[in-house]
């Protein structure tokens, strides 16, 4: 279960998977405000994305924009969500 750590709690044991410097940085980050911690975490996680992940995200964004444009030009039609969910429910055994 995920436990929320109080800002004043310091980490002293990290299961041997983090260097002393990593633990020090973590403790410093835990002193940040919730908003700053969220931004810090987002930046840290995004640094783990590979170039191919970023390219895939870019391509999906382009695809989404193209689909919106096609819908607005009348080249695509939409289906109400309720109808889609009903069809999925009806197709289940």
Please give a structural write-up:
There is one protein chain. The protein folds into 2 domains: 1-48, no CATH class; 50-93, no CATH class. 61% of the residues lie in helices and 0% in strands. The protein has helices at 20-30, 34-46, 51-72, 81-91. It is elongated. The mean pLDDT is 85.
Features:
61% helix, 93 residues, 4 helices, 0% strand, mainly alpha, single chain
Question: What's this entry about, in short?
Answer:
By secondary structure, the chain is mainly alpha-helical. The protein is built from 4 helices and no strands.
Radius of gyration: 22 Å
- How many domains would you count in the coordinates? 2
**What best-fitting shape do the alpha-carbon axes yield?**
elongated
Strand residues, percent: under 5%
**SS class:** mainly alpha
The helix fraction, in percent, is: 55-70%
- What do the pLDDT scores average to? 85
Count helical runs.
4
Order of helices and strands: HHHH
- Strand tally: 0
Termini separation: 35 Å
Largest sheet: none
Which residues sit in consecutive blocks of at least 5 with pLDDT less than 50? none
Q: Mind sketching the topology for me?
A:
Elements: H1 20-30, H2 34-46, H3 51-72, H4 81-91
């Amino acid at each position: 279960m995920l436990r929320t750590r109080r800002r004043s709690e310091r980490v002293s044991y990290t299961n041997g998977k983090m260097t002393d410097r990593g633990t020090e940085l973590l403790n410093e980050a835990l002193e940040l405000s919730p908003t700053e911690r969220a931004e810090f975490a987002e930046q840290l996680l995004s640094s783990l994305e590979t170039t191919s992940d970023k390219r895939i995200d870019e391509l999906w964004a382009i695809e989404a924009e193209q689909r919106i444009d096609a819908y607005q030009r009348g080249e695509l039609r939409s289906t109400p969500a309720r109808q889609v969910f009903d069809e999925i429910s009806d197709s289940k055994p």
